[in-house]
């Protein structure tokens, strides 16, 4: 296929926008012109001459010589407006905006068909790990049992620093912010939203279901304490924030985001700092493990460049799993074994443990390990961050009968 000459209109010049600029400048063989960059903040000092920038999005959107929009801004709703306007006027788009894609997944899918344009978003999940294209191309006919991993660089960075160096949660978060890993609102990282948006996008390509993010349970690392880290260390585990999606039967999947104990013989154990990792388990390919930098300007910029390049050759996602339609149901009726650190017995009762295998009651902390139902956990979702508890998925296989 011949390569189309690319004239790019770029939205956003933050960490990822600048990362992309560096990556593009270093890619000798690849020719693409960034015609204009639209930014919001007039007071920020820019490292390029001002004639490269505009504050008016229409200057890019109405420019017929621009044939590709690259959207790298922070605000998901504004991004949605830019991206849909571009698509409706026949321009293809590359974006890294996970919240936008996850929240408007089906609509964006429909718009691609209707206006015969392409929307690529490899950078939105796992940054430098090419997981979306792998799911589309390599796993198109594979019977995928499950996919799990680490999809948020910031929380992984915090957990790594707490575990390996004994640094406080607050200090580690500050470092992650300084290094440009965290979202502008870091609660998106530490409370598991960001990992969930990425999981929803991955689910669209792994199983062909466009999940409503609100339907998926997520819980992050905000309430982790020294006690939890100590417990994990004593048992030889690390705690990682692990999104999971998997089949419960032929046509049904379940998914959730929860911290998880990882033992030293597991792939994810050594996925540290801002690195991400994804494990797929499939009928024929068996277990596979992908790892790479999951946050940061250059890592994310490299995935954006790969999409820009793919676009220039006319690549589009075919949404093969959606077209096959084998998976049609989503369930939260799923049993999990968790560790619950808590203080108040009344709070523990809310979890409705179906079985308990371990119980500890100390002067300051108690914990219980046992089986609960994901549906019940989901009902507690708005209360959990305000309770003096911490939850970790033990990862043990639970009999679902
Ligand atoms: N804040 C995100 C993370 C950036 O920490 O993973 C990459 O999507």
Describe the structure.
The protein has helices at residues 15-26, 57-61, 76-88, 98-103, 105-115, 131-137, 153-165, 169-178, 187-190, 193-206, 226-234, 297-312, 320-324, 345-349, 374-379, and strands spanning 6-11, 32-38, 53-54, 68-71, 92-95, 119-120, 144-150, 217-218, 237-249, 252-263, 275-282, 286-293, 329-330, 335-342, 355-361, 366-373, 390-393. With 401 residues, it is α/β, with parallel strands linked by helices. The model has no long low-confidence stretch (mean pLDDT 96). The protein is built from 15 helices and 17 strands. The termini are far apart. It folds into two domains: 6-132 and 298-324, NAD(P)-binding Rossmann-like Domain (Rossmann fold, 3-Layer(aba) Sandwich), CATH 3.40.50; 142-293 and 327-393, 2-Layer Sandwich (Dihydrodipicolinate Reductase, domain 2). Helix 6 packs parallel to helix 10. The strands form three sheets. Strands 7, 8, 9, 10, 11, 12 and 13 form a seven-stranded mixed sheet that branches. It binds L-homoserine (HSE).
